[in-house]
Amino acid sequence: MSFRIERLMREHLSGAAGVLVSAYSGPPWNENWSLEAAIENVNNVLETPKSIALAAIDGGKVLGIALGIRQRRHAGPVIYLDELSVLPEAQGRGIGTALLSAVSETAKAEGCNSVWLVSQREGALSQFYQRCGFAVGNNLGLYSKSSA
C-alpha cells in the first residue's frame, strides 16, 4: 500500500470523518460516532487558526488523519494532537507512524516546541506512542465531568 501525507483539505472532510467513525467503533474505544459528529469534529480543527490537519491518502482515499490544535504555553507554542486515527483495515502499515512524524515535523517548522496528546496509559496504543518517542507523564490526571 502506498500513501502520501498531505494537508487535510475540505474536499477530504467526508473521508476524514469516515476514518474517525471506523477507527473509534472497535476496541479499545467502542464508541458510536455519527458521521455528522465526526464531520463537525474535523471541521472544527480545520476552522481553527494555526491548526495542523494532515491526512494519509492513497488514490484519493483517506486512510488516516492527524488533527492538531496550536496552543500557547509558558514555554512557547505547542500542538495538542486531538486526533490520530487510521482506518482499521489500514492499521499496521506505518500510516500512524508517518502521520505522527509529519505532525512533529510540521509543528517544529511552524515554531512549536512540542506535541502532546491524551491516550490510554497502558496497552497497544500506549506502546505505539512510546515507540514513536512520546513519554507517559506521571504527574497529570485526566479529569472529566459529564452533564448527564
Total helical segments: 4
Based on secondary structure, the structural category is: alpha+beta
Average of pLDDT: 92
**Overall 3D geometry?**
globular
Q: Helical content, roughly? A: 25-40%
Q: Using only CA atoms, what is the Rg?
A: 15 Å
Report how far the terminal alpha carbons are from each other.
44 Å
- Order of SSEs: EHHEEEHEH
**Which blocks of ≥5 consecutive residues have pLDDT under 50?**
none
* Biggest beta sheet summary: 5 strands, mixed
Adjacency order of strands in the biggest sheet = 1-2-3-4-5
Number of strands: 5
- What is the percentage of strand-forming residues? 25-35%
Tag the structure with descriptive keywords.
single chain, 148 residues, alpha+beta, 4 helices
Give a summary of the structure in a few sentences.
The protein has helices spanning 13-25, 35-47, 95-109, 124-131; strands at 4-7, 52-58, 61-73, 76-86, 115-116. With 148 residues, it is an alpha+beta fold.
Structure overview:
By secondary structure, this protein is an alpha+beta fold. It has helices at 13-25, 35-47, 95-109, 124-131, and strands at 4-7, 52-58, 61-73, 76-86, 115-116. Strands 1-2-3-4-5 form a five-stranded mixed β-sheet, with helices on both faces. Helix 3 (95-109) links the parallel strand 4 and strand 5 (115-116). Helix 1 crosses helix 2. The longest helix is centred in the C-terminal third of the chain and has 15 residues, at 95-109.
